[in-house]
Amino acid sequence: MDYSPVVVALVVTVSSVAIIHLLTTRARKSCPANLPPGSLGVPVIGQSLGLLRAMRSSTGDQWVRDRIDRYGPVSKLSLFGTPTVLVAGSAANKFMFFSSALALQQPRSVQRILGEKSILYLHGAEHRRVRGALLEFLRPDMLKMYVGRIDGEVRRHVEENWRGRAAVTVMPLMKRLTFDIISALLFGLERGAARDALAGDFGHMMEGMWAVPVNLPFTAFSRSLRASGRARRVLEGITREKKAGVLGHGKASSGNNDLITCLLGLTDERGERVLSDEEIVDNAMVALIAGHDTSSILMTFMVRQLANDPATLGAMVQEHEEIAKSKADGEALAWEDLAKMKLTWRVAQETLRTVPPIFGSFRRALEDIEFDGYRIPKGWQVC
Length: 383
Hints:
The chain is of the alpha+beta class. The protein folds into 2 domains: 5-115 and 360-382, 2-Layer Sandwich (Uridine Diphospho-n-acetylenolpyruvylglucosamine Reductase, domain 2), CATH 3.30.43; 125-354, CATH 1.10.630.10. 61% of the residues lie in helices and 7% in strands. It contains 15 helices and 7 strands. The strands form 2 sheets. The chain has a 5-stranded mixed beta sheet, with helices on both faces. Helix 2 (48-56) packs across helix 3 and helix 9 crosses helix 10. The protein is globular. Residues 1-29 have low confidence and may be disordered.
C-alpha cells in the first residue's frame, strides 16, 4: 500500500505523542510520596533545554532564582535524563558537601563522555585509592618542576598570539593556552599535529558535556561521544608508549614527570600497579576537563576586571616588574617567584569569589534520604 508523506508524518507524530504520554504517566505512577514540589517534565529531556539556554545566555543564576521563587528552596526536576532535586541556601550547601549519604557524581551524559573509571563516579575506598594516586602528581616537589615548563608555554603563546596586536579575543586564547599547558603537564604532549588534533576533539567534547543525552547523529551529545572516542584513542596510545618506557627503566624517568608517567610508576606495598590503564586514561580525561575551564575562565575574567580597574592593574604590573628585575634576560620563572606574587594571588581569589567558574555541583543519593522535610529517593541527583 502506498502511504503519502502526510499520512506517514501523522502516524509518526501520533505515535510519538502516545509514547511520551505513556512514559509520563508511568513516571508519575512510579514517583514515591513526599517528594519536593515541581515537575519532572518530559522524559529524558525534562528541564535540561531550559537550563542549557540560560547557561548559554549567561542567565543561569536568574533561571535558578526564578525556580526558587516558584517552588521554594527545594524542588524536583529532571536534568540530563535523571530525576533531580535542586536545593538552595546555606543549609543546603552544608547538606551537599557534608552528607555521607551523597556521593560526588556528575550526570550520566558526562560519565559516558569521560569514562566509567574516573574519580567523579567513585566513592568510599575506591575513591580514596584514585584520589591518593592523583595527589602524588600534585606534591609540592612535583609542582616545583612544572613552573619552568608553564613559563615556556606562556612565552610562546604571548609571542604568537598577543604581541603586536591592537586587539585580541581573550576567551578563545585563554582556552587554547590552558589546553596547551595542561596537555604538556598531563600527557607530556609537545606542540605539533597531535596536540592540535587533540585540541579540536577536546572542543567538540566540551560542546556536548552538558547536553540532553540523546545519541542521535545530529546531536551535540553524539558529536561529543565521537570526539571523546578519538581523544581516548590518543591517550591510550600515549599511555602504551609511556608504559613501555616505565617498564624498560623499571621506574618513571625524572625527565618525564607528566601525569600519565607518574601514575604508571605508582605501585602498592605488594609491588602491583595502583591504577589500571583504563583508570589512568579516564582520570587523565577528567583532569584535562577539570583544569581547563576553571583556569581559562578565571584568567579571562581577571583580564576583564583589570581592564576596568587601572589602579589594581598598575599595582600588579609593578609587582611583576620587581620580580622581572631579579631575573636574567630570558630566564624562566621559578617556584620562589610565585610566592612573591601576593597581589596577583589576591586578585585571582577575588575574581573567583565574584565570578565562580563552575555553575553548580552534582551529587547522587546513595540511599533514600530526607532534607527540609522532603524525601530524596536513592539514585536521584542533587544539585
